[in-house]
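Posting for a labmate who doesn't have an account.
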Amino acid sequence: MDAHFWHNRWETKQTGWHERAVNPLLITHFPSLHVPPSGRVFIPLCGKSLDLGWLLSQGYAVAGAELSELAVTQLFAELGIETHISDVGKHKLFHGEKIDIYVGDLFDLSREILGPIDAVYDRAALVALPEPMRERYTGHLKAITGLAPQLIIGYEYDQAVVPGPPFSVSPDELHRHYGDTYALTALARVDVPGGLKGKCPATEHVWKLEKRQG
């Protein structure tokens, strides 16, 4: 699953993961992170999610990372935000009022370039990656965000029936990736209407991650 796979998905409009409404689980559970007013929220693999517009509407600043320039161009057009584009490191930075989206490989994004982060919202990033990449992803995310608190929304289902993406990520796997540095709290479990892609039952789960003290 390389960059070509995701570029092709956007170019051929095979973007079934793109929700046409703000995720209600974000609205319900994001306040539990207690992000300060005007805090900066990082959304990895953000696409053109409407969730970014909701976070902006709540007064937060938003930073995102996305592989597809097409998705980011569409995001700014749909938000109606004036865009300034520049090259920063290996990324192309799309900047607007209270929003910075870094176009390129997430693994090339450094903490210095990203800047201070108050919270992470991972709705479709971890579950978008195959298992061999998830450990690398979680380690990198912890490093570039300074162990900022996280809200993670993911899926559980029978991986033998549907190969993914999105992939099934169990609570045990979440603890394996994050339990050394974060305290994990399960906030909700919701059955996915119609199951995953209409092929098998699936559960959407929400987790809050807070940096361990001491």
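Reply:
Got it, the structure tokens are right above this. The two ends are 38 Å apart (CA to CA).
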